[in-house]
Design a protein that fits this description.
The chain is mainly α and 100 residues long. Helix content is 62%, strand content 0%. The model has no long low-confidence stretch (mean pLDDT 86).
């Protein structure tokens, strides 16, 4: 709420607040049942099932403290250097955005 008030009054202070007399209100349908409604229901069901598995069925699953997949030294080295390249790419993008 504070951010909205700060934006409103700062826009009003510098004179860029939109003129409300230019707005035309028209009738429109805001809610209709289409494919997105059914997709939302499907994903809500999937999410509910996963929450059920996570909270109530996790006691039935036997956990071991081993690694999820065997890792080789080569794979670790390759992933480390890929991460370094990504960090350099990100830093370069930030420098271009803010300094050029």
């Amino acid at each position: 709420i504070g951010a909205a008030l700060a934006l409103h009054y700062s826009f009003d202070l510098i004179g860029i607040l939109p003129d409300p007399s230019q707005v035309k209100i028209k009738d429109s349908t805001y809610f209709k049942i289409d494919y997105t409604f059914y997709l939302n229901l499907i994903f809500l069901g999937i999410s509910g099932y996963l929450v059920y598995l996570g909270f109530f069925k996790k006691k039935d699953v036997e956990h071991t403290m081993s690694e999820m997949a065997p890792k080789s030294q080569l794979l670790e080295r390759v992933l480390k250097y890929i991460a370094f390249v990504c960090y350099i790419w990100l830093a370069g993008g930030l420098m271009v955005k803010f300094f050029l």
